[in-house]
Design a protein that fits this description.
about 10% strand, four-stranded antiparallel sheet, DEP_dom, mTOR-Rac_regulators, WH_DNA-bd_sf, alpha+beta, Arc Repressor Mutant, subunit A, single chain, Rap guanine nucleotide exchange factor 4
Length: about 170
Amino acid sequence: MESGSNNDRLTDKDNMNSDSANKAHNKIPSEKLQRAGKVLRNAILSRAPHMIRDRKYHLKTYRQCCVGTELVDWLVLQSACVLTRSHAVGMWQALLEEGVLNHVDQELGFQDKYLFYRFLDDEEEDTPLPSEEEKRESEEELPETILLLAQIGPDALLRMILRKSSVTVNNK
């Protein structure tokens, strides 16, 4: 009887881990993080519109995307609460896990490299640019949005590192 209850606990623990992994790859973002993505996108379009544009790589055009290193550079410059480049990577990773930001080829993990990422709002063909009112609202919400992401970014970075570690161990 004792071993049966241990097996039940292991099953529940495995289910929790499975649920956590599925949630990390969920493509329906939470309302808070969906709003955070919209605020960041609008702020980028307002402050550095050249960052979101069509890009070519190996004869293929990727519509309305950003470069990972440029996103990290931009975020580090926006607030003193973004302490390091790796902190910024974790903040973008949190948005990637929620499906608010996506790698153009759907690879997992945000990287501070010349890789292309696209905001969820830019996945549609004819996404309109933000209005002046939306830009103003995003400017007002930007400090609070960065603070939210600064708090959850380290956990997202750790999850990404642990996923990479488990893949490396499993491949050996």
